[in-house]
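re: ur question from yesterday

yeah so i grabbed the chain u mentioned. its 128 aa long if i counted rite. heres the sequnce exactly as i have it in my notes:
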Amino acid sequence: MESKNRFVYLYNKQIIIWAAIVVILASCIGYYTVSTLRKNKDYDLAEDYMRMSPDLTEPGLTPGDRALPPGADPIRVLTGIYVDRIEDINLKDSKWLASFYLWFQWRGKKVNPAANFQIINGEVLSKE
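ran it thru and got these structure tokens back, copy pasting raw so excuse formatting
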């Protein structure tokens, strides 16, 4: 009877040790995964801020002119977007296809913002 109790004790001890090892290993992998995802998110946010901020220049590009030339008469243009539908989402390739209405509002006939607008990190498949 004593050998059976000893066997059960050793068996329970091994299960506890293996469970502890699995918990420690899962914790380490979880910490590494979460920290890597957080670093990637912070990097992407910084990169997006660098790309979208009018006061900063992306690495490798030359800074644009910030000062208006003498005699410049800027025209205020309001813009907006109405998303009609998202037709396709591909999470694997980080791509999506959407139909939307983009509108501009300005006064005067000096400019036409619809003729030369740009989309960052995307492409226009059709324009009507």
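noticed a couple things. The longest helix spans residues 2-52. also The helical segments are 2-52.
anyway ttyl
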